[in-house]
Specification:
Chain lengths: 315, 308
């Protein structure tokens, strides 16, 4: 310090000037690399949220090279992660990290008992199969008779948004459909979103207590029981899902059946799955690469033959 | 259900075929060279390699020896410790696969997961994802090298193909040395050390599912998946034929095959077709399923289906 202070005026004056571009650069760098503020998560930049567990070869009971990314290495050894370009990390969701709900709920003994039907049937869009809401939603994974038992993997919750009561205790619920501002942008009142603008938040949500989901009948559901909600309007898919023909089972093909909730693949407020980048195409097998870049291969045949007859020294 | 051929049977065919190739000398030398082609070797291991028997005829002790030798050789070659297993098939299990072509969106996650899991040479793929025109099943116009900015592309659908594990597999019949056979759980496997690399099976296969190992796999130590099975993803010698084996090292331990685990859309459904409560049986019984080239009568255990 003493040294700098002791310098001549001109010298000291030159310091900030010299640093100016450097500081600017550093500042710009910070700006671009800083993690986005929480509010940014709700920006209307609707990337496909479909989270699938990142593939880890050998990960599991037997161990293996954990951390092998679902990347494709091309022949030249360049590694590229398909979704790295979009900056999405959602593909690496770790299912155990949720703070709510048991990791595995299994209730294989319950069967739907039509005699115990106490709830009225709900209106539905599809007509292929009729979900049975006669059992309470707590055992809701028995929506259809004879479904093999399964556990649903709890959803990942946005910490900033849970519980809803963080904010909705002091703000009174306003039931009129309208454009929402921060922190909920308008997921729903736009054309092309879920329900094509026909739904208002309270079609699926309630804000009593900690907040949660509600069926069209008004029954309370936890966020992890979202599939019961979806079942009301998409019974066909939900039926397939509960039998294993839609959606995804994780880890094993036999034994404890754990499956992904609908909201793991379909973002609840914009359920259609967006196109995304594919893993790069396979390289051509070794030895079969095209070598027509080399002039002696690329040249037309007549020129190649002609070259054989040409006098040495002639063009 | 076990299809263990008798000793003399295998020997008879192997000898006869190799003699046809070049006499008794070739018979002694061919397996030796094929095996020595991967991994460094000690003299003892070279001799043990040379006298290694057909997988189905080895005694448990011989198998244990062989597995240990494979692990040693992998250590010498790649510097990594691998485990080579010999997990037996499960009773009452025959594997089947069903693929929902209306869900498959051509991400190719399965392709790369398979490559990583099975220690494939980085230029080889067991799974080909064919990009097809909507409404057509014309394989001549299928594109497996599609490279769009995003998938699915407009007007296209995607049809992944891999080994269909035919119940009556033509490749098995074509093999002159019986180096490939159907396991009791329905997986068509290859004994890479018994294979002589003649590639007859590749021609017999209607699905282009078998691939020849033209060179040393270009793997580095870090890329090796150390969890291997003798009939599955263990390091393979050069000059043999290999193919999808339903991730035998995983599925025989109840885990999902790598392609299914990696698929983000849930288009792939794998399971025991003998179990009436399995997902695969639900699909086979409740969806309109079809198989490729069904008319050839090879009874593939790989079905395709479509939502509604």
């Amino acid at each position: 310090m003493a040294c700098i202070a002791g310098r001549s005026i001109t010298h000291a004056g030159a310091w900030p000037v010299a640093f100016c571009p450097v500081l600017l650069l550093a500042f710009a760098f910070l700006l671009f690399t800083a993690p986005p503020a929480a509010a940014d998560d709700w920006d209307m930049d609707w990337e496909d949220p479909a989270p699938a567990p990142g593939y880890k070869s050998g990960a599991g009971s037997t161990g293996g090279p954990v951390g092998a990314e679902p990347s494709a290495s091309t022949a030249d050894g360049s590694e590229s992660r398909p979704d790295a370009a979009t900056g999405e990390d959602d593909w690496d969701w770790d299912w155990e990290e949720t703070d709510t709900g048991p990791a595995y709920k299994s209730d294989t003994t319950r069967r739907v008992d039509p005699a115990a039907a106490s709830m009225p049937k709900v209106p539905r869009v599809g007509e292929t199969a009729e979900p049975d809401f006669s059992v309470s939603p707590k055992s809701g994974h028995q929506l259809f008779a004879d479904v093999p038992g399964f556990g649903v993997i709890p959803s990942i919750k946005d910490k900033g948004m849970h519980p809803c009561s963080n904010c909705h205790t002091w703000a009174k619920s306003n039931l009129t459909p309208r454009r929402l501002r921060v922190p909920h942008d308008n997921f729903l009142l736009q054309h092309g979103l879920h329900g094509k603008g026909e739904f208002w938040c309270f079609t699926c949500h309630h804000l009593d207590g900690a907040g949660g989901l509600r069926t069209l009948e008004g029954e309370r559901l936890s966020f992890d029981d979202a599939y019961i909600l979806c079942a009301q309007c998409h019974p066909g898919e939900t039926r397939d899902w509960s039998f294993g023909a839609h959606g995804k089972r994780v880890d094993n093909w036999q034994g404890n059946r754990r499956i992904l909730n609908c909201t793991a693949c379909h973002y609840q407020h914009r359920p259609n799955i967006k196109p995304r980048k594919a893993v790069p195409p396979p390289p051509v097998r070794r030895g079969l690469e095209r070598n027509d870049r080399k002039p002696h291969v690329a040249a037309p045949l007549w020129e190649k033959i002609g070259a054989r007859y040409r006098e040495p020294g002639q063009p | 259900m076990s299809r263990k051929p008798s000793d003399s049977h295998i020997d008879h065919y192997r000898r006869r075929f190799l003699k046809g190739l070049g006499g008794a000398v070739a018979a002694a030398a061919t397996p030796g060279t094929a095996r020595a082609a991967w991994g460094g070797n000690t003299l003892a291991d070279t001799f043990a390699d040379l006298f290694q028997d057909h997988y189905q005829r080895m005694t448990p002790e011989e198998i244990a020896d062989t597995l240990a030798r494979i692990e040693r050789k992998a250590k010498r070659r790649y510097g990594t410790n691998i485990t080579c297993k010999n997990t037996p098939p499960q009773d009452g299990v025959v594997y089947g696969y069903a693929l929902n072509i209306s869900k498959c969106r051509g991400y190719r996650e399965c392709v790369s997961a398979c490559m990583l899991e099975n220690n494939l040479s980085r230029d080889m793929r067991y799974i080909q994802v064919l990009e097809m025109d909507n409404g057509s099943l014309n394989f001549e116009k299928a594109d497996r090298y599609y490279d769009h900015r995003t998938v699915p592309a407009k007007g296209k659908y995607y049809l992944p193909i891999q080994c269909m594990h035919c119940d009556d597999a033509p490749c098995v019949k074509a093999c002159p040395v019986e180096a490939t056979w159907t396991e009791p759980d329905g997986i068509v496997v290859v004994d890479y050390d018994w294979c002589i690399g003649c590639r007859y099976c590749m021609i017999a296969c209607p699905y282009e599912a078998r691939h020849f190992n033209w060179g040393k796999p270009d793997l580095t130590a870090g890329e090796i998946n150390p969890d291997t099975h003798f009939l599955g993803n263990r390091p393979r010698p050069t000059g043999v034929v290999e193919k999808c084996h339903f991730c035998i090292q995983r599925t025989r331990e109840n885990r999902q095959p790598a392609c299914q685990e990696a698929c983000p859309t849930g288009a792939r459904i794998f399971g025991n077709i003998l179990d009436p409560n399995s997902e695969i049986r639900y699909v086979l019984e409740n969806k309109a399923v079809f198989r490729l080239k069904e008319d050839l009568g090879t009874e593939p255990k790989f079905w395709y289906f479509h939502d509604n």
